[in-house]
Amino acid sequence: MQKVDESQIIKVTNPRYRQQFHISTPAGWLNDPNGLCYFKGYYHVFYQFHPYSAEWGPMHWGHVRSRDLIHWEQLPVALVPGDPEDTGGCFSGSAIVKDGRLYLIYSGHHYFGDNDQDHFWENQNLAYSDDGIHFTKSEHNPIIEAPKDNTQHFRDPKIWQKDGYYWLILGSQATDGLGRALLYRSTDLIHWENRGPIAKAKDAKSEGFMWECPDFFRIDDTDILLYSPMGIKPVAHNFLNVSSVCYQAGQLDYDQAQFNHGPFWELDHGHNFYATQTFRTLDQRRILFGWMSSFDDPMPEKADGWAGCLTLPRELHYQKGQLFMTPARELKNLRESKVASEATTLDQDYFFDYTDQQHSEQLITIDLAPNTVTKWQLTSAGKPLLTLTADQTSGEITVQQGDLKPRYAKFGGHQLRLHLYIDTSSVEFFINDGEITFTERYYADQPIQTTVSANQALPVQIKAYHLA
Ligand code: FRU
Q: What is the CA(65)–ligand 1 centre distance, in A?
């Protein structure tokens, strides 16, 4: 395998926006989470990584591991591109353990060499490791080549095991220009049989021209196809990001390769959420990580030699006909001290008054009344950087991030339960037990101040923890 050129590795020049408890690179660019798994006593997370600059570039696989899902240790780069099977990059993929060996299955990205970044081809490859640290690319690579009815978009294999087979789902674009998910199966991880598309976009504008990072799993007796479609056009207050994360729920008939499913939904409503991947913990919980993406906005941390981070681990559940996301229960272990705990009335703005609000968790429960407008706000040097507004009359929650266009979600009920995690440069909102989430970045050069307010004197319960 190619080696990282240590002399070219970029360094962080300013720690001001560095995250404390989110996975990010030591320096350099990060995008999708890859290869989530548990192997020999550790959780492993890999990520799309460019170590030589804070911009996207030839993709490597960065690597961290953890015993507890919250404290992460950086490991050497796991995959370096430039071998015949991945001349232009080691793109996204997943992991599986077979006979005590950890296998990564990933996309090889290749350019035609005509200086056109949009002219490429892709194939699928394997790498393996016995110690979970050093990886060898398989002599059988490439193990899957694109079928004839596919365009150049053919990537991001997500693997699982069921009923004596290994299965994988691949992100693809059919030659008619529509996004789809292809199902494959194998008995040895090397020879794969294409079982065909299990779902496909109706049209490119409403369902995407390419489905990146597909994932497939069973949860609460329901099969979920989760993916990141590209090119969906906004409809009213939905699909406002450049690319979205969507899912469809149903039942997969594995023999017929038929997925009977309902309509698709957006998973998170924030500005910074893309390219998710899930895995199952030893105790069978389904955990998701996403990329706190920002392809369309400048990321101020680029000036400091790094870019991007992953979301916190989130537990998924399927209930009331939709996916719920809650913070992984391990995150409670980040709590260092309780810094607020009270029941009061919002007859005036409530100011959180503890120090280091940038590393904290807040739980806020507000009893609503008709026509109430409630607000949570993060300011720095008097400037609002993030504002969440829940308006009972419109039944809508709005999140404003700096000067960007807002994002929205529908809400109902008589209580607003906000659970949020603030890190140096992000806030993740889990609302009403995970029914609604917003994933957001912010950039403060002075300490932050958070407040809660309402247009009426509503009862509120407040708790906050300092995290370390
Ligand atoms: C999603 C994605 C994947 C691809 C990877 C490349 O963000 O475009 O489809 O494998 O990023 O870095």
A: 21
Within its chain, how far is the Cα of 223 from the centroid? 19
Which residue, chain included where needed, has tokens 């997370």? 45
Report DSSP state, residue 231: -
Q: What is the pLDDT of residue 180?
A: 98
CA separation, residue 255 to residues 159, 162, 195, 236, 258 (Å): 17, 12, 9, 39, 8
Q: Residue whose CA is closest, atom 9 of ligand 1?
A: 212
3-state secondary structure of 205: helix
Q: Which of 25, 47, 48 to mutate to test the pocket of ligand 1 (most atoms within 8 A of CB)?
A: 48
Name the band, by pLDDT with cuts 50, 70 and 90, for residue 294: confident
Residue 32 annotated as catalytic = yes
Find the residues whose C-beta lies inside 6 A of ligand 1. 31-32, 48, 59, 91-92, 107, 155-156, 212-213, 275
Distance 92 CA to ligand 1 centre (A): 6
pLDDT confidence of residue 387: 98
Tokens of 313: 């681990």
Q: What is the pLDDT of residues 266-290, one digit of tens each?
A: 999 999 999 999 999 999 999 999 9
Q: Does residue 142 have a cis bond before it (omega within 30 degrees)?
A: yes
pTM for the model = 0.98
In the set 32, 156, 223, 268, the catalytic residue is: 32
Q: Which residue has the tokens 């056009």?
A: 233
User: What's the start-to-end Cα distance of the chain, in Å?
Assistant: 38
Ligand 1 center–CA 387 separation, angstroms: 30
Determine the residue type at 234: P
Query: Model confidence at 378, in pLDDT bands (50, 70, 90)?
Result: very high
